[in-house]
Specification:
The structure is a homodimer of 363-residue chains. With 363 residues, chain A is α/β, with parallel strands linked by helices. Chain A folds into 2 domains: 170 residues, NAD(P)-binding Rossmann-like Domain (Rossmann fold), CATH 3.40.50.720; 165 residues, Dihydrodipicolinate Reductase, domain 2, CATH 3.30.360.10. Helix content of chain A is 35%, strand content 21%. In chain A, the strands form 2 sheets. Chain A has a 9-stranded mixed beta sheet with strand order 14-13-12-11-7-10-9-8-15. Chain A has a 6-stranded parallel beta sheet with strand order 3-2-1-4-5-6, sandwiched between helices. In chain A, helix 2 crosses helix 9 and helix 5 runs antiparallel to helix 10. Chains A and B meet through strand 7, strand 8, strand 9, strand 10 and strand 11 of A and strand 7, strand 8, strand 9, strand 10 and strand 11 of B.
Chain lengths: 363, 363
């Protein structure tokens, strides 16, 4: 199955990967009933309120284990999900997963700057890795993650849940099939008024950056999956109105990407206010977009010809995990490989450079 | 009456002007029934389809004369509006207006690069000037217009019709009275797929630039009238996908303004596609905006608390002209003086410089 999100370059790359290096798996296509065992690594809000509940609704996955540095969380999860002791790890014991056939995948849900460490440990323990976005806080670390999984002959996917979301997929179809003609411009923004000033998202060492890394990445992804293309030039401006809360990362950032052929994309991300949750794509003969575009539920799209876009509201995390499980079961490449995550990080680093220097950056 | 659009700086400036230099007018407040005579200078689409019809609905104005370089237009307008021969001018005979007491105001509606010439001629002939936006194609020319009207002791206003539009004014009130708290960010865009490739708007010598000058100025104005402040830094990116049609001016341009205190504003203007017609203002406790924001009719606003903004749909040109007539009749300053027009041109020139150089420009 070719994902409508994949650019031609992606497709060739992942197809080549599939032929050249995709691991032979212990699980054969002849045993389709076996559920892929997921260990959740990092038991914060996302794991607690989204991923663990989603796992209960998947077709091909099961919550098999956990990795946490907090014994109290381990006890709570053990009780709630009936997780056996041999499937409970902390960050120092992950190497022992190598001896645990119940765990096929480690889903890395830690703060951004800890993704590389856990991914490499998981890969070395012979596990496939699904890693939350943003992939990491530098291109070099992303590359290390890709290398570690490739060396271990394990799959690596990034948690880009919207690649499995029907309304976003419909917009990708409208763009790629040129239903309104050639795309001319995209504007996309995502932001919210962040709460607790002590959370890791406001700590540059753990987050790698501010709202761009956390929510701006959705707007950046929209630009990339709608065009199916890669930007060639970036400019950006960042700004902070509350210097007490935002002393370590930016409060608000806007950026412009120029794509081959001249398409211009404008993005904005913020932690300073309840901002947009939206993209709009303008084409030769009309426009379309979504608002809200990036939420877990309730997404809605619009088209300039008056048609609404309101396809089924699915559990995006369940879809994402079931897809990864099927990649493993059927030995096919993921539509959201590590290379996709690295490309976003590379562009985000260029956005930060452009904002810092006040100069356009060529990619 | 203090306009809610005026910044403190504007107000002091225009008040000072009123005290120091506002001309004594032939018309006294004791004769409120006298209608101010407008001569339309430039009889293109805007004059034909908007301004002349609007003049028929004004309370304090009348269509008194015309200035046109096209004899056939003169004949048509003479017949349609019963304009006497002594009130029909061409660009070479404008000096003779000095002897015509029927004409109080020249409304300059020519291509942008001809505004200065007609404004100076009108001022020298002792007429007040209302000039369409953008004021001119350079800061120097704007200053010459201001100087000419000041030397002649005549009023100069720029045709910023939205300063008289109730829905836009309500948004200015929401911003200035901090109904949703301090403003944090603004995004504004305006654009359309331009038709005839031979029109003057695509000719840099006549237009001074592309969609930024023509429609982007509305988005820029929104940023300035919502904040009541002046930007301190500009960055911008421009792009062209159709190099046949857009060989002389930009097709699409996006820009970012940083305001004192850190507010960030993102703008976009285009001639390449039917783009946005919108602004959104994000504040501490909510957001509001308009879509469509800049049209002649049918404007609608929205607020994050669910209230709609839908105030009466007025004839904006009539309101603008009646206000200017009242400024003349009551010897008060206009809320849209030449200085306001110059400031936009200055910022737009900085936007073009930033786009051309790929570097942020400090204002």
């Amino acid at each position: 199955m070719k994902s409508p999100f994949l650019s031609r370059r992606d497709f060739l790359k992942t197809s080549a990967l599939a032929v050249a290096g995709l691991p032979l798996l212990g699980t054969q296509a002849a045993e389709p009933k076996r559920k892929i065992g997921f260990a959740l690594c990092g038991l914060g809000n996302l794991s607690t309120h989204q991923i663990a509940p989603a796992l209960q609704t998947t077709e091909f996955c099961r919550l098999a284990g956990i990795v946490t540095g907090t014994p109290a969380k381990a006890a709570r999860w053990k009780a709630q999900y009936n997780i056996p002791d041999h499937c409970i790890y902390n960050y120092d014991t992950m190497a022992q997963m190598a001896d645990n056939p119940d765990i096929d995948v480690v889903y890395v849900v830690t703060p951004n700057a800890l993704h590389e460490e856990s991914t490499v440990k998981a890969a070395k323990a012979g596990k496939h890795v699904l890693c939350e976005k943003p992939m990491e806080i530098s291109v070099a670390r992303c590359q290390q993650m890709i290398d570690a999984c490739r060396d271990a002959k394990k799959l690596l996917a990034i948690g880009y849940r919207l690649h499995f979301e029907p309304n976003n997929l419909e917009c990708v179809r409208l763009a790629r099939e040129k239903v309104f003609g050639q795309l001319k411009s995209i504007e996309a923004g995502f932001g919210f008024a962040i709460g607790d000033p002590k959370q890791w998202r406001l700590n540059r060492a753990l987050a790698g950056g501010g709202p761009l890394m956390d929510v701006g990445i959705y707007a950046l992804q929209a630009m990339r999956y709608l065009t199916g293309d890669e930007p060639v030039e970036v400019s950006a401006t960042q700004s902070t109105t509350d210097k007490t809360k935002f002393h370590d990362v930016e409060e608000t950032i806007s950026w412009q990407l120029k794509f081959p052929g001249g398409l211009l994309a404008n993005g904005e991300a913020t932690y300073g206010f309840n901002g947009p949750n939206r993209f709009n794509a303008y084409a030769e003969r009309g426009s379309f977009g979504m608002e809200p575009a990036y939420s877990y539920h309730g997404l809605r799209g619009h088209r300039s010809d008056g048609h609404e876009i309101q396809l089924p509201d699915i559990d995006q995390f369940a879809a994402e995990m079931d897809d990864f499980a099927q990649c493993i079961l059927n030995q096919r490449p993921t539509r959201v490989p590590g290379e996709e995550g690295l490309r976003d990080v590379k562009i985000m680093m260029a956005i930060y450079e452009a904002a810092r220097t006040g100069k356009a950056v060529t990619l």
